[in-house]
Design goal:
By secondary structure, this protein is an alpha+beta fold. It has helices at 7-13, 16-22, 41-46; strands at residues 2-6, 36-40. Strands 1-2 form a two-stranded antiparallel ribbon. It is globular and about 30 Å long. The two termini are 13 Å apart.
Length: 51
Amino acid sequence: MKIMITQSEALEKGIWPEVMKMFGLNQEDDVWANEEFVLSEEQAKTLGLIS
């Protein structure tokens, strides 16, 4: 299963710093609010999005 989350959704849920690390992003990288990130089931569980 794949889970998609946007940058704005990750910010709302307070998990954006973790998503940034998972995708090798840093503060200097330009990311759009509606940019989508595809998470594996394991990553989504780690972030507490699914149980």
